[in-house]
Amino acid sequence: MNETETMKEKEMVDAQAGPADPIMDPPASPSATATVDAKAKRIDAEDLNIYYGDFLAVKDCSVNIHPNKVTALIGSSGCGKSTFLRSLNRMHELIDGARVEGKVLLDGTDIYARNMDPVLVRQQIGMVFQQPNPFPTMSIYENTAAGLRLNRKKTKKTELDGIVERSLTGAHLWDEVKDRLDKPAGGLSGGQQQRLCIARATAIEPEVLLMDEPCSALDPIATLAIEDLINELKKRFTIVIVTHNMQQAARASDYTGFFNIEKSGDPGVLVEIDETEKIFSNPRLKETEDYVSGRFG
Amino acid sequence: MSAGPISAPEAPGSGKAIRRPGDRVFSGLAIAAGLTILIVLAGVAIFLIGEAWPAITAPVSDLPDGKSLIHYIWPLVFGTLLSSTIAIIIAVPMAIAVALFTSHIAPKAISMSVSYLVDLLAAIPSIIYGIWGIAVLGPASVPVTQWLSDHFGFIPFFDGPASTTGRTMLVAGLVLALMILPIVCAVAREVFQQTPKGLQESALALGATRWEMIRMVVLPFGRSAVVAGSMLGLGRALGETMAVTIILSVTGTITFDLISSENPSTIAANIALQFPESSGLDVNVLIATGLVLFAITLAVNMFARTIISRREAAGGR
Ligand SMILES: Nc1ncnc2c1ncn2[C@@H]1O[C@H](COP(=O)(O)OP(=O)(O)OP(=O)(O)O)[C@@H](O)[C@H]1O
Ligand SMILES: [Mg+2]
Hints:
The complex is a heterodimer of chains A (297) and B (317). Chain A is of the alpha/beta class and 297 residues long. Chain A contains eleven helices and ten strands. Chain A has helices spanning 11-16, 81-87, 118-124, 140-149, 157-170, 174-177, 190-203, 220-233, 246-252, 276-281, 286-292, and strands at 43-52, 55-65, 70-75, 98-106, 109-110, 125-128, 208-212, 238-242, 255-261, 268-275. The termini of chain A are far apart. The model of chain A is unreliable at 1-33 (pLDDT under 50). By secondary structure, chain B is mainly alpha-helical. Chain B has a single domain, classed as MetI-like fold (Orthogonal Bundle), CATH 1.10.3720. In chain B, 72% of the residues lie in helices and 0% in strands. Chain B contains ten helices and no strands. In chain B, helix 3 (108-123) packs across helix 5 and helix 9 runs antiparallel to helix 10 (281-313). The radius of gyration of chain B is 24 Å and the shape is flat. In chain B, 38% of the residues are buried. Classes of the chains: A alpha/beta (297), B mainly alpha (317). The interface between A and B is medium-sized, with 28 and 23 residues. Bound molecules: adenosine-5'-triphosphate and magnesium ion (MG). The site of adenosine-5'-triphosphate (ATP) has 13 residues of chain A, from strand 2 and helix 2.
């Protein structure tokens, strides 16, 4: 019933005229169970230093994020997970004085290259936030279609209907809202609103989906629903999720990265990233083990 | 909607709820303040109606120029509405543009100084606006209005003949627009700035450009406030006296021609001009026009309120 079609038009690659198909080494997958419906893009960060003004928030971060996998980022509060995540789709620079040094490669194309339009980057790398925040003045339908109405793309009404239905179905929300698509989105429950936000983000068919603690405002049932959904979504998207919930990282992700911070005021550092199983059973570092097992100071 | 036993809000007729002394004092004060406002409002209305009554009931032959009251008031109402409409049409888009510029587009330093300058506009006394209008803007408008009447004379607004002094409805409306710009702009700016960060970021994260983000999130969020601010501005424009009195060359003609020297007066300007020299029934007639102005501003306010509450009910914030 989930009619996810392969409908990825990789516009930016054409526009960028970059190397046709760069580094394509499929990593040894820990859970080879999930099938891939559409090949998404990979992200490689190289020597990222992320600043708020003079304050270095994340230091020397290099990481490969594999396509069609879920990468979880964990670590204590204030160690730079959100900062790092927001630097991956150029949301970071929206803050006054904030800047990024280093490279972020989306399938080999540097999103921080001089001639790169941040708007194009964000169309390819979508984001779901901690607080569910549907547009309050728009209906459920309008919310889902919001991204499609942008960007000078003309979409036919029937086509739009199809995408809205597919996105809402993909977000496991269709059955709950199909009879009230024209009602304000504010009338949905928190969990429904968050799924609507996911539908909204996926409707524009990005390559990568960044999620910053998407479940922290939700109850356990809604949380599980979203985790199921994430598992579905990785067939079509590359997913990076920040979470404070160890079980969630263990359940929902293929890779886990652990951010740590020496002491407050120091920059956050990505100290270890590996297959989730490895991080939770046999991490390389003592501090990682302490953190995932809950023995963290 | 089922209420718990402890925090149950008082159901109708369920007896007295427990209230703390502080709450009681506060609500007493609030009620007193509310009542005072109501009493003042009612007092003004009663005074106006009482004083206008002789004019309303007087035979037509006793009224100024032997015209019926309606005939006397209608050109004034027309002039009042026309000048205010021009002011609103010019001021609101400008105010929105300036508010967006200062809240979302300009860098901080520039936006602060622009906001400051716009706020300064509000501090200029209306008499100064009037003098400036007649001494500077009016003469400066003459070539423009001349050109308008030459080339766009087929539009009723620019029918002409263009005034040679610039004491036209267009100039009066422009000056009024400048006078109400700060209030509309301040209200709009405050609300635009309060647009939730999360909404703005979601729009941008969907790949919206800054302008698309503004259209998608900021404007809908601020819409009812812009309406409210515009109504405040309209209220000021309707009642504005000094500037219009000085600028407008008045003949009492009802016309949509904005650039000629024949113009209807406005209620407020007419009262200011006539009142010192009036006595007897003429005073009552002027007060009757004041009553009409009072009714118009009340209606404008109520209209604004319904718009705002309707938007709120429709799921806005
Ligand atoms: N807008 C900002 N301006 C300046 N410093 C900021 C800003 N946002 C975050 N920081 C700082 O950057 C560091 C990393 O913050 P970040 O929000 O990335 O942490 P986090 O790992 O996401 O924490 P949490 O788990 O609590 O969400 C913190 O020291 C924080 O104080
Ligand atoms: Mg965070």
